[in-house]
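Hi there,

I know you've been waiting on this one. I reran it after we fixed the sequence typo, so this is the corrected version. Both the input and the resulting structure follow.
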Amino acid sequence: MQVKYTEIKNFKYRINPEERQGAYGLYFIRPFSIVLTFLAIRLDISANQVTVGQILVGVVGSGMLSFVDPSLTLVGLILLQFGFVLDNVDGEVARFRGTVSLTGKYLDTVGHELVVPMLYFCVGLGNFARLGTIESVVLGFLAGLFSLRLDVITMSHEALQFKGTKSNTTFDYYERFEEGSVPSLYRQKNEKSLTRVLYGMFAYPAIMNIITIILLADLFFLHEVLASMRFNLMYVFLAVHGTLIPLRRVYTIWRFVHSRATEQTYLKLREDAEGKRE
């Protein structure tokens, strides 16, 4: 597909305000993603192919965080950031080409559900290898296990969200936001709600960036200070997340059961499906 770089750069719907990536994603990752988006379109690479690539890069990058060698850890962190760039590219390609699909949304969700648990578990393994604290592995495992969102209500929510916004190739849902540039829409959706900001701190990509900062601090700035101690910043991080994430997941399940949200969401999807068949 022969397009000009300026066409993609000026594409009004290149950034989806529904995404939660914060200022870092908007101002530091998007300038890189637009270059790869241009190349993907020129080379006729599909959005789903980019998503698969992002999953592979994320999984490999997460796995490298389990090694003790700081150079391998640094390579893993670079791969994870590259995966973050690709996570923006697939959506940009899909919206520009008008190929937004449920399959793409599903693949994107699968990618996040693989990378985030692997991140927790691998940094737990890496911290155990450095400090000899077996609880790092246990806490990383618990955080990874309970961060999985493969329950019915989550997937139903994703389907409803896709139906309301991401499957809309005319991008009418942008009209729900105040008038302004795409970046202003993005900030309005992501930075004006404290609850959304706090929730995003436990989700991809925020959790990946937090882990990146902590690992860099432990390995390259605080190494001498913490060399003789049996804990570091990552140990504290794992202790907090290995405790809070299971508690939050148990509370979420209880709330869904108590409010019968699963049944209500399922019925909405069923009514929509039956309406289409008629």
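Quick highlight: The first helix runs from residue 5 to 9.

Best,
R. S.
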